[in-house]
Amino acid sequence: MSASPVLGGLLTSAARMSDRWRRATTVVLVVTLGIAPLALLPIASPIYAGMATAAPTLYTYTLAIVLAATVLAFREPRMMLAASLPWAPLLAWLIVLTIFAWDSTPRLYSGLIHLVLGAAAFAIGVGAAVDDRDGEASPTLLRVPWLFAAVAWIQVLTVALALAGLPLRTLTFALAQDVNGRATGLTTHPGELSKLLFFCAMCALLLPQRTPRERWFAWSTFGVILVGIFLTQSRAALGGLVVMIGIFVRLEFAVGRWQRRHAVVLGMTVVLALASIPWIIHRFATDTGARGHTMRIAFDVIRDRPWSGVGVNSYVAVVGRTDPLTSTGVPVHNIFLLSAAEMGIVGALLLWLPFVLVSVRAVGALRASRGTDPAARVIVAALPGVVMMALTGWGLLQGPYFLLFAFMFGYFGSRRPSEERARRRRPDEHGSRRPSEERARRRRPDEHGSRRPSEERTTELGPGARASEASAEEHSPDGSR
Predict the structure, then answer these.
(1) Is residue 314 part of a domain?
(2) What distance in Å separates the CA atoms of residue 19 and residue 313, rounded to the nearest whole number?
(3) How far apart are CA 67 and CA 32, in angstroms?
(4) 282 and 317 share a domain?
(5) The whole model's pTM is what?
(6) Domain assignment of residue 38, yes or no
(7) 10 Å Cβ neighbour count for 434?
(8) Domain span at residue 397?
(9) What is the pLDDT of residues 370-410, one digit of tens each?
């Protein structure tokens, strides 16, 4: 009898310790992907234009993903299994083609490891979303948005130091040839930095804005991201960011009202777009037209090998034997064509299946919540930008940025309010208000226009809370607003 309380205490302590480990590993993962994606073994490897390196390489984020996935599987095995199921058909397809269709090479195994890490990053994102959802009432517990806001600040401060003549990272001659004065931060290419900042912008849309300090931090973070993407001179990321902000603000109007923060964000976006016109014109004027050639080559490869493709991470090595431009390290700048050319049409469809499922679920959640689900708004608003970057480049399939891509969709695809919070947003079967709705009602002026004491102590609500209040008002029995 006396052993039961002791055993219960030990189990509780173990559960709390595993929760701390899971959150700590998420922090380490974001840092290694967003700030320090460094090679450990081997430290230096030949430059290869593919989704992964020419041979299996151990990176800092490789260790972080393995550790985070292990902790998640130990703490939440059912969650880990459920989050991995959308990737199971792809992994089965890759195993079959590896055995029966593709040549056994180091670059092939490097690509296979890369895709497995992507599936693990997706599952880790799901786990991080559950942690953030449980702490939704406190803005300080929204760890992932705050972490990526910090990543954006660090990257843009690195760019500022480089402009001041104090670069924190120096590129090799082979990598520097393609930069042409564009900002790279701690990455190796302007396109990589722009995609990273795009993901940071997705998280910045969830930053709380309940106090003046939080509002100024959110606005300044948006400003930093806009400046960073401007300095990268990335056309797809710029267009995607502008469209994402426009759609997100428009969706907020459906459940709220015009606020000062909308004017600030839209104003900064318009200034960014206007200031970018000169370099956009210059980049289009200097475009060599190589993208059209690489697309024709990719279509030829898909036509010749529609089922098996040339092998994961093998496009440049195999196609470069017959095409001079591809042999110089220029793959097709379209991740849908690139994945189909490497894994076959079926393999490409299976690769993008988890992302399609998240997108469809986000659209459904947005309709079901009448626009009040912040994470669903982010996914829907970001989709046009993601498609732009996918159709005009191959960076979303490459290196740590594919892993970030998978992590983000796993996170936002599972970032939902708890059932209890969702239930409190709706009127019960008798049409009466629940306690949270009653508090929302007390925040509104009474029929004489005077404010109640509780309202005088409230501050401006963030996007999620404003949406919840609007939803509560819409479903009120008396129909008042």
Answers:
(1) yes
(2) 36
(3) 12
(4) no
(5) 0.83
(6) yes
(7) 15
(8) 16-134+294-417
(9) 888 889 999 999 999 999 999 999 999 999 999 999 999 99
